[in-house]
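Quick one before lunch.
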Amino acid sequence: MYDLLLFNIGQLLLPASTSRPLKGEEMKHLQVIEKAAMAVKDGKVAWIGQSEEGEKLEAISYLDVQGKVVSPGLVDPHTHFVFGGSRENELALKQAGVPYLDILASGGGILSTVQSTRNSTEEELFLKSSFHLERIISYGVTTVEGKSGYGLDRETELKQLKVMKKLQEKYPIRIVSTFLGPHAVPPEFKGKSDLFLEEMISMLEEIKEHSLADYVDIFCETGVFTVEQSKAFLEAGKKLGFGMKIHADEIDSLGGTELAVKVRATSADHLVAASEEGIKQLGKSDTVAVLLPGTTFYLGKEQYAKARKMIDTGVAVALATDFNPGSCVTENLQMIMSLAALKLNMSAEEIWNAVTVNAAFAIGKEDVAGTLTTGAQADFVVWEIPNYQYLPYHFGVNHVHSVYIAGEKVRRKKYEL
Ligand code: NIG
Ligand code: FE
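Model of the N-(iminomethyl)-L-glutamic acid complex:
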């Protein structure tokens, strides 16, 4: 006897589960069962097959999904969803043509959010982040990565990480947390970035001891941290058993992509300005390229990451929102899927693989997220779309009908006509 049986599924999307991320050409293939059924027992996927056969199975409850699409819960592998305040004032500066890095250099940007985050109590941060987290879930995401990096001091960085830990205790969504202490150089360390980096490295043991983060990350960029500093920080994290991620070659081509391959980082993120050589090396590695087209869009840049070139070179590509209060202010991963189609020229199959199986690999959760196979946790989304190609096509809205985590409905659309 199953707990739940979904039948009459128009298309059941089954991104391939393998021992490594889908690379290049492999991303073009998306396994789909038409007219499918899926049974859930004890929070796990227990049976997958044709609807005709599924309808004969016994279950406690039945759900006729009436031809809708069902996919694994989406995975958003790069966000900064825990922060204080907001920065709508910067929109006018951007309109006046002030570059992102200039806003940062004059004490705004990331540093303005640092001020608001330092001024927030843990309770305030928790409440604000729950609001964002619930919105993330509402868009069909069942596994999310979140970063610290708006504290830039011991106390506030730990506060952000603790908030994520508490959110994990309260919400069913899976949260992977990343220590991004070196996100910018705070005013009190202006001109002394090496000293600041030492301070951040000195926090690693405590973070490890209290299991406050799974990954370390650093903003490797002009005027922020150099490739050498990034290498020192990532290696310090690796030594203590953290996974490694890097904000690499977002604005200037510094060589962060090559560094990611060299240190065997789990992911290299942004990569808009990645060099030909960097892309070639990525293609030969298992480091996942996490592309963030929402950020390029929001920063008003012409040049997007070269996703086609990456895929043609054998790179494993994932997509994420980069949700944060400055460079990409949206929790909507579906919007990113549309931007991937329109601005990165990715096919619908590549896009679905990039927000499920490859996104799971980008945060080391490939064993538990991003696929729907028998025995896997039943994290899935019922989509109000006629076929999987439809989602990137109809942009800017929420196509979720309902979201399930471990077989339990955690979210359904707000109104039904
Ligand atoms: O991924 N690039 C650095 N960090 C974030 C932006 C953070 C912010 O502007 O608050 C990013 O784009
Ligand atoms: Fe980011």
